[in-house]
Design a protein that fits this description.
The protein is an alpha/beta fold. The protein has twelve helices and 15 strands. It starts with 14 loop residues before the first strand and ends with a helix. The structure holds pyridoxal-5'-phosphate.
Length: 388
């Protein structure tokens, strides 16, 4: 019997090593890994540059308190702000801490400018923002919140992509609208540019901040650094995590100068957030992602993947209903049971992960090759054939 608290329904496989797109189990069996820690290992398993970085940094310095200046942190923050909408970055350890920090920053901004009535955040049905109490009740998924009351107040939920409901719900107490640019756990649901622009216009009209949760879809996964870039809008606050650490626990909250005014010394903190070891890995991830043509290649591979997935959908219309997503964040909405499909794919030595709406999620690493994408299609097709 395991001594680990049983909060996961784990599959009975464990891995002893990984390289790039592949994992190897205890028996040496090779698996094509399109889970990658749920969109975490953007550079695949044990990328040489990350391994070298962590080895070198681990001999120099692991952890110092945020009571001191941390040069690696300054460097990562500067690189993130030089290349994005943001002026400041606040480092955390996980996605849920980054979304939680986003909520705090939005509320504190209005407090600071004397609009203390603006405290409430509009969120969306089917969202996922993490497992701290505020993030849980922000998403308000009945499966996740049951038994964890009393409810954390301050969130008003509306249906996904329904501008009319947002308009109706907005009031003088609304501080922010918080939405995943691509809804991940909810089923890889994308939003039109028009909808995003519509939200941004409402925010401007009602003096409301826009928080775009890019914990799952950010850091290069769509072929842009942020998924929202293609819409041309600019958010006020963006929590990221997963990809920025490439497998090392790291989260961050990116903010504009305007909304940062309330975040003075003592207003927020994290013992581990932004320590030299984590920051050196974050910088190493950016070394690769910022390489010329890296994101262009992600875009091309994403389009290639979309093309071959759609061919498969057309060939097996009774199995795959829809190909969702952008770039290398993909979902197959299934007409057969997604759990059964994933089980059969695992037997074919390919790893995937489910989402709501009967979706199978596919997260190849951003360094995946077209040959590996073809291999994925062969494995997916063999399960389609079997279940047809
Ligand atoms: C969109 C989104 N926000 C927040 C989180 C929470 O991140 P973490 O599990 O690192 O706390 C997740 C995790 O899946 C996520 O997908």
């Amino acid at each position: 019997m395991s001594s680990v608290l049983g909060t996961y329904a784990r599959k009975n496989i464990s891995f002893k090593e990984g390289k790039g797109s592949y994992l190897y189990d205890e028996n040496g069996e090779k698996y094509l890994d399109f889970v990658q820690g749920i969109a975490v290992n953007v550079l695949g398993h044990c990328h040489d540059h990350l391994v070298k970085t962590i080895q070198e940094q681990s001999k120099k310095l692991w952890h110092v308190s945020n009571a001191f200046v941390i040069p690696e942190q300054e460097k990562l923050a500067k690189r993130l702000t030089d290349n994005t909408f943001a002026d400041f970055v606040c480092f955390q350890n996980s996605g849920t801490e980054a979304t939680e920090a986003s909520i705090k920053i939005a509320r504190k901004y209005f407090h600071e400018i004397g609009k203390t009535e603006k405290k409430r955040i509009i969120t969306f049905k089917g969202a996922f923002h993490g497992r701290t109490l505020a993030a849980l009740f922000a998403a308000n998924n009945p499966k996740h919140v049951e038994g964890f009351g009393p409810k954390v107040d301050g969130f008003d939920q509306v249906p996904f992509t329904d501008l009319k409901s947002i308009k109706k719900t907005l009031n003088k107490n609304t501080a922010a609208i918080m939405i995943e640019t691509i809804m991940g756990e909810g089923g890889i649901k994308t939003m039109s540019n028009d909808f995003l622009k519509g939200i941004k216009d409402l925010c401007a009209e009602h003096e409301v901040l826009l928080i775009l949760d890019e914990v799952q879809c950010g850091v290069g996964r769509t072929g842009n650094f942020f998924a929202f870039e293609k819409s041309g809008i600019e958010p006020d606050i963006v929590p990221i995590a997963k990809g920025i650490g490439g497998g090392f626990p790291l989260g961050a909250c990116l903010v504009t100068k305007k909304v940062s005014v309330g975040m003075t010394p003592g207003t927020h903190g994290s013992t581990f957030g932004g320590n030299p070891l984590a920051m050196s890995v974050g910088n190493a991830v950016l070394d690769i992602i910022y390489e010329k043509d890296f994101l262009k290649n992600v875009k091309q591979k994403g389009e290639y993947f979309e093309g071959i997935l759609n061919k498969l959908k057309d060939k097996y219309p009774k199995i795959i209903e829809e190909v969702r997503g952008v770039g290398l964040i993909r979902g197959l909405k299934m007409l057969v049971d997604n759990t059964e499909f994933i089980k059969k794919l695992t037997e074919q030595k390919m790893l995937t992960v489910k989402a709501e709406e009967n979706v199978v999620r596919l997260f190849p690493p951003l360094i995946v090759s077209n040959k590996e994408l073809d291999e994925a299609i062969t494995k997916i097709e063999s399960v389609c054939k079997e279940m047809n």
